[in-house]
Amino acid sequence: MPGAPSSEPASVEEPTGPREPLPPKPDQQAPEAVSPTGSPTGAPANARAQSGQYLTTAQGLRLADTDHSLKAGSRGPTLLQDHHLREKITHFDHERIPERVVHARGAGAHGVFRSYGTASKVTKAGFLAADVETPVFVRFSTVLGSRGSADTVRDTRGFSTKFYTDEGTYDLVGNNIPVFFIQDGIKFPDIVHAAKPHPDREIPQAQSAHDTFWDFVSLHTEAQAHTLWNMSDRGIPRSYRTMEGFGVHTFRLVNADGETTLVKFHWKPKQGVHSLVWEEAQIINGMDPDFHRRDLADAIEAGAYPQWELGIQAFPDTEDQMFEGIDLLDPTKFVPEELAPVQPIGLMTLNANPTNYFAETEQIAFHPGHLVPGIDVTNDPLLQVRLFSYLDTQISRLGGPNFAQLPINRPHAPVNDMLRDGMHQTAVHSGVAPYHPNSLDGGCPFMAGQDVGAFVEVPEEIAEAIKERRNPASFDDHYSQARLFFRSMTPVEQDHIIQAYTFELGKCYEAAVRERQLMALANIDAGLCEAVAKGLGMPVPGATVDVPDSEPSPALSQLGGTWPVAGRVVGIVADAGSDLSLVAAAREALESEGIVPLLVAPVGGHLRADDGPALTVQRTYLTARSTEFDALVLVGGASPAPDAMPGRDAKAGEPGATVDPRVVLMASEAFRHGKAIGAWGSGASCLDAAGIPQDAPGIVAGDDPGAVIPALQELLSTHRAWERFPAAGTSA
């Protein structure tokens, strides 16, 4: 059987006995070992592979630990002295050129952020004062895939915002999941290497459904909480517009009086959090791999500007930096909103697409160390390493240290930095004294005081000062929050998580990897573990860790609310026999609510009536698929189009159908995916042809279009007709 990831089977337990590296698989062959000028060397082909039993630095120095950075005490800041960390991260940062190592597949947009002023009590940051408007650029992305990968893969998404404030550039570099895989940034190369395609075959692309990923996360159980979020519907968002964003780390805010507050940042989409179902995501990957970037650009072009509220969870800045038993410096932990409500502090609106993808979206350079007065970092060990890594990465990606001079990265505040020369220097500096202090340039630039907006780090006392590689004991809990998340899901969402685990682990070749991950699931929830094990045809292991229960957090579920319908996309299926005046009225009614209606017809061009309007066709039966729409409106009998023949379109089915098979497929998929469907007149025949009961949940059929459209809009506000998904639930 092909597909074994390595030349020997893996063990369930972590191997600890030293041994030489495994040999290549029988189907593998390295390039001939010749010299740079083509002369034979006589060395074996695999002579350039790694050697030795022990982990070393690039200079051959054996290492005792590669999981913990060197810190000033277990809760203290990471030390620049850590030569192994710097070598490991520096090498990782320069692994790829020119695309990003992670977050390579991205989409971006310009916008504006308007502050409510509600954060002014906890921060002196000028852009968070009342009614201040700040230009922004946002880049959304997947993590694992290359620039050419598909958008709707199951993955964590990046959500990074550059604020061009008049005090300097501030970057909020976050994700759509509030927790991360690892607790210490020294492991970042490891988790990315594990999640990326296998290095021998460079597959699978943009997926975590493979052995090396699950081998890593089942051995590093701190990753289980993030993995569970990824296996939930959060891993396949419907749109960037319906995606939450999180700063992940805990940050420190400083107000005008010098008082400090710890916070976590949240972006809340005004359209609500909404995701795809798994079949939708798979279809879209084939039909339109650019789905998310197209959706974002189309919405902005249509005037349906995406909006998010920025909010903060605020915590007292206590000495232990704990809140309700949760370590605020642990990036694998989140704080339930029931314990610390998210307080809105401003509104972001994206209202312009980039002019040039490369110049803007591809060349934008984020860095969590781009701060402004009033916002400071904490000793979160993942954040501490990011402060080094992001800056280092830009030097490789963008060709040198002057990446801040690229148009998309230029600050909107005066810059007088004494930095000179370097590759791609586009500033023409004057003066002769780029040093401080000086007298030859009149002393300029001068140091600033806090009274004129200088950034001054919070003078935090470091209680422990022992150089050591270890985490505090509070980082040892790897399961309680994973359990909290799973048990906060509705039965429908739990079923989707079970499906995701079963699919992903079913793609793993090694039984040992699947078994080890089931052992982790047993510690999270017995019902979850049993359901996944049953799908894999494997024994159900028992729990090995005593995990405390906690109250579920309803705020974690995506179901149960209603949200604005502006920006949703509705497909109107019509043909020459439809009453086009009613079609025009339906389209106008949808547009009046900010909904984007797309007319789907047998052929392109226009639908014309003898005495009525000519309506522009946006999609045809050939080019449309249900996955593009949030809802469907069927207003015609949809008789077969001229190209309804299998030789032209495999979806057209066999000849002789009274309703075009592609419309039947569109309706049946929309129904299966829980989408609202409206129909009137002869459009009801499409429901019958698809076998859809007219009294099913989420179906609005009748003779009065004036009643169908409002009812459809109301259904859209809940995202899906969730009653169509019978679910048993699994919580133990």
Structure notes:
With 732 residues, this protein is an alpha+beta fold. The chain folds into three domains: 106-409, Catalase HpII,  Chain A, domain 1 (Beta Barrel); 476-556, Hemocyanin, N-terminal domain (Up-down Bundle), CATH 1.20.1370; 565-716, Rossmann fold, CATH 3.40.50.880. The protein contains 16 helices and 22 strands. It is globular. The mean pLDDT is 91.
Provide the domain count: 3
Computed Rg:
28 Å
Q: Tell me the name of the CATH homologous superfamily of the largest domain.
A: Catalase core domain
Biggest sheet record: 10 strands, antiparallel
Enumerate the spans where pLDDT stays under 50 for 5 or more consecutive residues.
Answer: none
Distance between the termini: 37 Å
Helix content: 10-25%
| CATH architecture annotation name of the largest domain | Beta Barrel
Helical region count?
Answer: 16
Could you name the key traits of this structure?
732 residues, alpha+beta, Catalase HpII,  Chain A, domain 1, Hemocyanin, N-terminal domain, Rossmann fold, 22 strands, globular, EC 1.11.1.6, metal-binding
